Amino acid sequence: MLLGIRVTEKVSLLAEKNNVYTFNVSSDANKQNVAQAIMHLYKVKPIKVSIMKVPSKRVFVRGKRGVKRGGRKAYVFFKKGEKVEIS
């Protein structure tokens, strides 16, 4: 279900201010599956999980056109004081 954590500038600001972490998830994942995977891996119970689609994008590299693959991401909300150890 969880493919990995998303590390971007926006995500790091959300983690500091609102205690929200963002993960890349598989296309068939649902909120319950993501919450169970978080509890199993990090031993922390999330308050809320939001899943959204990431659209594919057109790219142009070295004179060739292509498509950057899309996917899905999950915003996982935790209580204040709870942290996810990312290594």
From TrEMBL:
<dbReference type="Pfam" id="PF00276">
    <property type="entry name" value="Ribosomal_L23"/>
</dbReference>
<protein>
    <recommendedName>
        <fullName>50S ribosomal protein L23</fullName>
    </recommendedName>
</protein>
<dbReference type="InterPro" id="IPR013025">
    <property type="entry name" value="Ribosomal_uL23-like"/>
</dbReference>
<dbReference type="InterPro" id="IPR012677">
    <property type="entry name" value="Nucleotide-bd_a/b_plait_sf"/>
</dbReference>
<dbReference type="GO" id="GO:0005840">
    <property type="term" value="C:ribosome"/>
</dbReference>
<keyword id="KW-0689">Ribosomal protein</keyword>
<dbReference type="GO" id="GO:1990904">
    <property type="term" value="C:ribonucleoprotein complex"/>
</dbReference>
<keyword id="KW-0687">Ribonucleoprotein</keyword>
<comment type="similarity">
    <text>Belongs to the universal ribosomal protein uL23 family.</text>
</comment>
<dbReference type="GO" id="GO:0003735">
    <property type="term" value="F:structural constituent of ribosome"/>
</dbReference>
<dbReference type="GO" id="GO:0006412">
    <property type="term" value="P:translation"/>
</dbReference>
<dbReference type="InterPro" id="IPR012678">
    <property type="entry name" value="Ribosomal_uL23/eL15/eS24_sf"/>
</dbReference>
